[in-house]
Amino acid sequence: MGRWALDVAFVWKAVLTLGLVLLYYCFSIGITFYNKWLTKSFHFPLFMTLLHLAVIFLFSALSRVLVQCSSHRARVVLSWTDYLRRVAPTALATALDVGLSNWSFLYITVSLYTMTKSSAVLFILIFSLIFKLEELRAALVLVVLLIAGGLFMFTYKSTQFNV
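Structure tokens predicted for Sugar phosphate transporter domain-containing protein:
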């Protein structure tokens, strides 16, 4: 009886995980095509990104206030040093990622955008080595080189523009 309950719990978690991943993919694909459609008529992608990030900031502030009110605990306040050292680099990288991605829709197709966007894995691996979150290993270098080679072959023909 215990074994059956464990299997049902495992299957339920697997189905839930699969459902959440599929939901994420649907939203991700949807927002990609929405951004491409929006930049066709609204030629200010960096302003669009500014509004996007401002809305995220407002929703984050609202959710933080709601959690604080419902949990009755004091919120964690970071010092300016922590903000500058830990939060600002991530925030700047995210803003550049979203802003430049939206800007790219003015010049490239959605398929090239999607192929190129998958190079984020390379940057994550490189920065994890720089910040010593990962150790330099031969297997990791091989994975990075294989991903880079695959991305190069995948996008090479798509970037041969006829100017």
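The chain has three domains: 1-41, 43-98, 108-163.
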